[in-house]
Automatic annotation (TrEMBL):
RING-type zinc finger-containing E3 ubiquitin ligase that assembles with melanoma antigen protein (MAGE) to catalyze the direct transfer of ubiquitin from E2 ubiquitin-conjugating enzyme to a specific substrate. Involved in maintenance of genome integrity, DNA damage response and DNA repair. This is Non-structural maintenance of chromosomes element 1 homolog. Residues 185-226 form the RING-type domain. CDD domains: RING-CH-C4HC3_NSE1 (cd16493). It is found in: Chromosome, Telomere; Nucleus. The lineage of its organism: Eukaryota, Metazoa, Chordata, Craniata, Vertebrata. It comes from Tauraco erythrolophus (Red-crested turaco).
Length: 238
């Protein structure tokens, strides 16, 4: 039986829907504000229970609020996910066929790369190789800008990676379709695009998880095989 929901739950859902994705601290503030406005019981440590109640009502609609992590800083995020549609088809109503093809090819570059990034040069070189309809580079630049604005991609100094929203929404699709390249983080067990990999056993870890896991260790050793972790630990002075 679905948990009871109140107007506070409904308001929270409406605001999250308008944002698409929300950082954890913002979600906690919104939780408090919704409870105060509608004069319902508020507990600062019950956000996940509050969201579970909403999810129990979203289930028949094949929707779900999911929690994920930013690969940049390790912060929690919440996103509303459509479970009925899979993979890139959920983007089909917003983009043309050749825009979707450019997105798929960009995803290929990012997921198959060593560091989880693809350069704008490499992506733009794909624009005139599209099977659906070739794109001029100027047009492709504009499409990439829209993907960033819509929170499917993130861009930093001409390098593109998957936005946190995209990772939360498409985790299952990516794990199914990139079985040889995609891996889950050995620490938090969610999909890791930007990660470090153990040279000995091949497990991967998000950079924030690497930083956190090795913080207390004098000599960094792989949590799986116990071999020396040869990658540079993020945030430590060499």
């Amino acid at each position: 039986m679905a948990a009871q929901i109140t107007d506070a739950h409904r308001r929270f859902l409406q605001v999250l829907m308008s944002h698409g994705i929300m950082e954890g601290s913002e979600a906690r503030k919104l939780h408090r504000r919704c409870c105060e406005i509608h004069k319902v019981y508020y507990a600062h440590d019950k956000l996940d229970d509050f969201i579970s109640a909403i999810n129990s009502h979203l289930q028949p609609l094949f929707m779900q609020i999911r929690k994920g992590m930013s690969e940049d800083d390790g912060r929690a995020h919440y996103a509303l996910v459509n479970l009925a549609e899979t993979e890139v088809t959920k983007m089909a109503s917003d983009y043309t066929e050749n825009e979707l093809e450019l997105f798929r090819k960009t995803m290929d570059l990012i997921i198959l790369s060593e560091n989880g990034f693809a350069s704008s040069t490499d992506i733009l070189n794909l624009a005139d190789q599209l099977k659906t309809k070739k794109m001029k580079k100027k047009e492709a630049e504009q499409v990439l800008k829209v993907f960033v604005e819509d929170k499917w991609l993130s861009e930093r100094n001409g390098e593109y990676t998957l936005h946190t929203r995209c990772i939360i929404e498409m985790e299952q699709y990516i794990l199914s379709n990139y079985q040889d390249a995609a891996r889950k983080c050995n620490i938090c067990h969610s999909l890791a695009i930007q990660s470090q990999v153990c040279e000995s056993c091949g497990i991967g870890m998000h950079l924030p998880c690497v930083r956190k896991y090795f913080r207390a260790q004098i000599e960094p050793r792989c949590p799986q095989c116990n071999d020396f972790w040869s990658c540079d630990i993020p945030g430590t002075k060499q």
